Amino acid sequence: MPELVVEGLGAGDARALLEAAVPGGLDEQVLERLVAETRGNPLALQELPRGLTPAELAGGFGLLDAQALSGRIEQSFARRVQSLPPETQRLLLIAAAEAVGDGAVVARAADQLAIDIDAVNAAEDAGLIEFGPRVRFRHPLVRTASYRAATPHERRQVHEALAAAVDSERDPDRRAWHRAHAAAGPDESVAAELERSASRACARGGRAAGAAFLEQAAQLTPGAAQRGARALAAAQLKFDAGAYNAAEHLLAVAATSPLEEVDHARAERLRALIAFARSGGGDSALLLSAAAKHLEPLDPELARETHLDALLAAARSGRFLTDEVVVAAAAAAARGAGQQARAIDLMLAAVVARMADGYEPAVPTMARALAAFRAEGFSRENLAWWWLACQLAMDMWDNDGCEEIASGLGRATRERGGLLILPFALNYCAAHQVFRAQFGLAEELLHEAESITAATRNLPPADFTVLLNAWRGDQERTDALRTAIIEAGAARGEGFAVQVAEWSAAVLHNGLGDYAKAQTAAENASAYDGLGFAPWVLPELIEAAVRNGDRPAAQAAFERLAERSRTSTKDWARGVEAAARALLSDESEAEEFYVEAVEQLGRSGILVLHARAQLTYGEWLRRERRRVDARVQLKAAHTAFATMGATGFADRARRELLATGETVRKRTDDTRDDLTPQEAQIARLASSRLTNPEIAAQLYLSPRTVEYHLRKVFQKLEISSRKELAAALPGSKSVLASV
């Protein structure tokens, strides 16, 4: 999200506004202190003096209270509310309790309480409220002050009147909410109504609203057993909405109730899921596995889902994985094998086979699971496991399939407001843009993922920003990110993040020609056979080991790679295997494999690897003293790397070209101002003919903000219309519109 820091007024303007708000003048010391303490906040400058007596304004003694500024402003409003006639105060209380500001409902509730609607005039004359079809308070703190000033009994009376005033057919949920706040104690009829409202809210996709209804229902439930069940259901919805602390509080409420055994097991599962969400690894896989075992005799389907959760946590744990989790999941998958298999059950069988039996024996099962998952599509029930689908697709050399899954997951989570899962989808989409040499697009997606994670204050995914910086050849930034990721990942027990960091370091050092460091990083990244890593990490290890003179290590890595690539007909698999064979072959056979690698990777669409194949082929040709042929490959590689911004590999290609006697000009920097990630993202969406409101909805912005950014884009790109955007931007296809 774009950030706009709203500064306070300058000292001169603040003094002028304050003096205008206090006729008759102020003590100079009081004036200076008010200006300093309000920090130029216009509302505070106008409202604070109204809550102070002349004596306090004269000497400033009333300013010694060290409470927060918003609290002091609210107190000022509270004093102004309390100075109104009692009937006006009650009418303000009704308006404050009616959350959506429906003037007709407020009027009907006032009539229920025998309050003359004309009582609002005094509040309007005081500038605190505007009454019409929509009721508008001058400031949210006026509403807060009005509500807090009332006694609990007065609030219950008002909510009861509002419940009667709301149309139960058109708005049953608002009626239920007011009835809940009108209840003086447990009331099963109100609790049941709230439970129905929660179901309606969840059906609309409003998990957070459903959680609020169910939490209130639990509080009003007389029976201990039913109260516990509702608290547990509310806790699950709070977790789905990302409110982990609230979920744990409700789990504690449920734990004090006489739950059924199956509910105890579900509570155990939810605690483990919260632990996983907070750590990304650690012992959460073991906790989930234990919960799954508890569920097996009580709810076999949920038990298998929980075993899959445990395997997901185990895959994120990576090198910190324990075999116990896989063994338990394998037993559960075997018990459910004879039943009607859901896509989730097939995914469980596939991940178990991959982790327990190794790669080649698991391929048929993995293929069936992926086909079933993709046929089922994205639903609220299966979103949590699509990360595993991405990893299995990578394992099977299906780069296009993984990209399609990540883009689809991005669309699905955007539509549902799934801000917990969306950053994962954006990160994977960004990685695929790196592979396609669209570094700018990758940066935009990573920037959005980072912004969402910061806004929701949730654990960030294993961030591919480090990989992007590695491909760009930015050693300082890559090293800093690598160190931070490894420290945090090791502390949390999240081996996947550690592997991403080490893989990125291998890419960086291979580009810079520091092959000893590249080999060490690649060996660290490939030490654990994580899902989806081998196709990317093993080629880095093979090249680094060959260049470093460690042929046995290169040969061992090749054998691991060939085990996977020989079962695939994908261009990516065939090209990577050919490139590795070329590096390990003698002079008489190498060229055949180099040519095959360039051709296959050229068809794969993975442009960074295609350029790498051209580079290694050109390097081999130069060492064979075929300088003219070498220049063809090295020029193509240098141009590709320089265009995509892979400076490390571009410099490596440039050095090789110079060694052939070729003169290589350095690329000049574009003198035009760079677009920010936000501007570039908006520009690409606009170039795909989306309107400002459509762009705003997709990026969680306002149309006015989109318009503001587009004006800046036009200035920087020196264009005057949206029609010119496609030509002015690097790359005409808008990938962002698909995620």
Can you tag this structure with a few keywords?
single chain, 739 residues, mainly alpha, Serine Threonine Protein Phosphatase 5, Tetratricopeptide repeat, Arc Repressor Mutant, subunit A, two-stranded antiparallel sheet, globular, disordered C terminus
Describe this structure in words.
The chain has 739 residues and is an all-alpha fold. Among the domains are: 193 residues, Tetratricopeptide repeat domain (Serine Threonine Protein Phosphatase 5, Tetratricopeptide repeat, Alpha Horseshoe); 62 residues, Arc Repressor Mutant, subunit A (Orthogonal Bundle), CATH 1.10.10. Helix 18 packs across helix 20. The C terminus is likely disordered.
Structural class: mainly alpha
Could you tell me the mean pLDDT? 86
CATH architecture of the domain at 467-659: Alpha Horseshoe
Uncertain stretches of 5 or more adjacent residues? 59-67, 668-673, 732-737
User: Which CATH first-tier class of the domain at 467-659 would you pick?
Assistant: Mainly Alpha
Outline, from the CA principal axes? Answer: globular
Measured distance between first and last alpha carbons: 16 Å
Strand content: under 5%
Whole-angstrom Rg: 32 Å
* Percent of residues in helices: over 70%
Q: Treating each run of at least 4 consecutive H or I residues as one helix, how many helices?
A: 40
Q: What's the CATH H-level superfamily name of the domain at 467-659?
A: Tetratricopeptide repeat domain
Strand order of the largest sheet: 1-2
Largest sheet: 2 strands, antiparallel
Count the E strands.
2
Give the oligomer, counting copies of the same chain as homo and different chains as hetero. Answer: single chain
CATH topology of the domain at 467-659: Serine Threonine Protein Phosphatase 5, Tetratricopeptide repeat
